[in-house]
Specification:
- This protein is mainly α and 138 residues long.
- The chain is built from 5 helices and 2 strands.
- 70% of the residues lie in helices and 4% in strands.
- Helix 1 packs across helix 2, helix 1 crosses helix 5 and helix 2 crosses helix 4.
- The protein is globular and about 55 Å long.
- The protein starts with 7 loop residues before the first helix and ends in a 13-residue tail after the last helix.
């Protein structure tokens, strides 16, 4: 028996949380494209792919960037994290055709809109994460 087998119910909870987060990021990206001049999302499919890709970039690349830029972040009292967020937003646009960010300032303001919108949505829907600890004695 595999050590990490999820029940059907647990898998459904995980996937519904993923879907809700993806929809929240889609809303945030749509809002950023509506508010910030210089941010343009091609269509619904591009919006969906951009939300998935932004999540992947934030999960993989962003922690590395935070560690590598730690001295700048300390010297600027954390303000350099805004630049890191804008870079992740711009990297997502660079990787995905149909998602256009036309410079640093649109990337900065777009990432701020996405961050604020995602935070507000997270406050309203909760973390959606259920943690369980299973101890197996052999």
């Amino acid at each position: 028996m595999p050590p990490c087998r999820l029940s059907v119910r647990a898998y459904a909870l995980v996937m519904s949380g993923f879907l809700i987060r993806t929809l929240a990021t889609m809303l945030a990206l749509w809002l950023a494209s509506a508010i910030v001049p210089g941010v343009d999302v091609g269509g619904t499919v591009t919006l969906f792919l951009a939300s998935i890709l932004l999540g992947v970039v934030n999960a993989i690349v962003r922690p590395l960037m935070i560690v590598l830029t730690l001295p700048f972040t300390v010297v600027t009292l954390g303000l350099f994290l805004l630049v890191v967020n804008a870079t992740m937003f711009g990297l997502t646009a660079w990787l995905l055709p149909g998602f256009v960010v036309s410079g640093f300032w649109p990337a900065l303001f777009g990432s701020l809109v996405v961050s604020v919108t995602s935070t507000v949505v997270s406050w309203n829907i909760g973390s959606g994460v259920r943690r369980e600890v299973v101890v197996v004695k052999r």
